What does this fold into?
Amino acid sequence: MVEADKIFQEYNVKLSPKQLQNFQSYARILEEWNKKMNLTAPQSTESIYRKHFVDSLMMDRVMELNTQSLLDVGSGAGFPALPLKILHLGLRVTVVDSTKKRIRFLEHIAKELQLDMHAVHGRIEEHDQKEDFDIVTARAVASLNILCELCLPFVKVGGYFIAYKGKNFQKELDESAHALDLLGGKIKDIYRYSIDDTDRVLIMIEKTASTPYKYPRKFSQVKKTPL
Ligand code: SAM
It folds into this structure.
């Protein structure tokens, strides 16, 4: 049996009994579904808590979350959006993923945990709801220069794009200078932390100017000629 409360305490994450219960249900349902389909890479229950739940919650360290609108691009099995929603019920969360089975899973979790959120199936670059969100997040979806093009167009001016990255982030940052410039993003902060001796980083990008409407381009173009 995983001692979930101890894991959260280790990272100084304070939860109410209801929130802890929600994380326990989330882990159980994720493990059940993972037996039938590949939602996340196979891992121990303890890893689900550390590498997915705690990692997702690290955003709390860089900004105060309350009732902002948050779009999670390529949310997969819900990371980081769902753990953040469990902690901050007032957040207005939209998750987008191009895989139908993952969207079905996210809808199921939202129903089971009674979380009010919006799940959208499709590729983000095919959506038109531009400059609409206070915060856009992405974790383990693409390299930063590509993510800038996929995510920054959806952030309001004055809002933030938060990218969850690993230890090789500096190279990705260097390669994103042009994209940031073109799309109206500016690095505001870089928050380093570690989970189980793995170096992690949150790159906080502020949207300081409007993005030209033609972005994001079609994915074939985004990949072939990254900004
Ligand atoms: N963010 C989750 C996490 O950290 O565990 C999932 C990561 S998973 C490796 C990447 C996910 O992004 C997949 O579920 C994939 O379907 C989705 N994805 C990739 N490109 C996308 C795009 N352009 N629009 C929407 N979803 C995308």
